[in-house]
Amino acid sequence: MLVGLYLIMWQTIMLQIKLKLFVLPTFDDLYNGVVYKNFTTSEIEDVEIHDVRKLEKLLYNSNLTFLELLYSVEIETFSIPEINKIVGLRG
Q1: Which of 4, 20, 28, 29 is deepest in the core (most CB within 10 A)?
Q2: What is the spatial order of strands in the sheet that 12-23 belongs to?
Q3: 48-90 residue pLDDT tens
Q4: Whole-model pTM?
C-alpha cells in the first residue's frame, strides 16, 4: 500500500514515497511462531514490510500510520482473487 507525503522545503516540492507491504507467513513461520518485519530507507522511498498477522494488532491499537492505509488509493493485490474481493468491499 502506498502512502505519499509531500514535503515543502525551500520552495521545492519533494515527494517522499512510503510503502507499507504485508506478506503472508510460510508454514515454517507459522509453526515456529516467527513474525517477519523489515525496514529499508533511501532518499526517495521508505519501505516497511510486516507480517500480515500483525495488521490486526496495529489497527486495533489505532496506530495512525497504519489507519491511513485504509484510505490508500494505490493497493497492489498481485491478482490474487481473495485480496481483490477484500479490497472490493471498501466501496
Answers
A1: 20
A2: 2-9, 12-23, 45-51, 37-41
A3: 889 989 888 888 887 777 777 777 777 777 788 887 887 788 7
A4: 0.63
- Reading the block at residue 89, the C-alpha cell is 468491499
78: left (phi over 0), alpha (psi -120 to 50) or beta: left
Whether residue 16 contacts residue 46, with contact meaning beta carbons closer than 8 Å, is answered with yes
Helix/strand/coil (H, E, C) string of the chain?
Answer: CEEEEEEEECCEEEEEEEEEEEECCCHHHHHHCCCCEEEEECCCEEEEEEEHHHHHHHHHCCCHHHHHHHHCCCCCCCCCHHHHHHHHCCC
